[in-house]
Write a structure and sequence with these properties.
The chain is 30% helix and 28% strand. The protein is built from 1 helix and 8 strands. The chain has one helix at residues 13-64; strands at residues 68-73, 78-83, 100-106, 112-116, 123-128, 138-143, 149-154, 160-165. Strand 1 and strand 2 form a beta hairpin. It is elongated, with a radius of gyration of 26 Å. The N and C termini lie far apart (88 Å).
Length: 173
């Protein structure tokens, strides 16, 4: 006589439901942490991108012995830089076909440009000359949806550093 062996391999429905419930709880806790972490990550990333744009503009200006223009636009939330062609004097500082774009970056959702060098205008242009010096010194201030403030300080010598405010944008260090 042939005996049939009953196989007990596999999981019961209850075991599968318990594992799915545990995974759901873990995902819920992780998702809540992500929502708290993401705005600060976007702010830090934006500040690093602006500083990188300033440093790249400075390097391009010195390397090509030409002026690089950086435009900060708080209305469109876009920052862009380009190497200006010296032969188009009437269009100096205006991006046209003869110019070489260096960098273009858009602020991510939830990041607001709240101050551009203390100037009231929503668009501020900065020129980095062929020696790496800036025509404008000051600070660019950003904030995120959690009211965390960071920015970039630019000197006339063309150097830049990241700054932070712990008191809602009143004082910066």
């Amino acid at each position: 006589m042939i005996k049939l062996l009953k196989s007990n391999n596999g999981f019961t429905l209850i075991e599968v439901m318990i594992v799915i419930s545990i995974l759901g709880i873990i995902a819920g806790v992780g998702g809540a942490g992500l929502n708290r972490w993401l705005p600060d990550y976007r702010l830090k990333s934006s500040v690093l991108d602006i500083r990188s744009m300033i440093q790249s503009a400075r390097l391009e200006a010195v390397k090509n012995n030409a002026d690089v223009f950086i435009r900060f636009d708080s209305n469109t939330r876009v920052c862009s830089s380009f190497l200006d062609n010296a032969t188009d004097a009437p269009n100096r500082g205006i991006l046209d076909g003869g110019d070489n774009p260096v960098m273009n970056l858009a602020m991510p959702a939830g990041i607001v440009i709240i101050d551009l060098f203390g100037v009231v205008a929503p668009v501020v242009d900065v020129t980095i000359n062929s020696r790496g010096f800036s025509t404008l010194a000051g600070e660019i201030h950003l904030k995120n949806a959690r009211d965390t403030y960071q920015g970039v300080n630019l000197t006339l010598a063309g150097s830049s550093r990241i700054i932070r405010s712990a008191d809602g944008g009143v004082s910066w260090n």
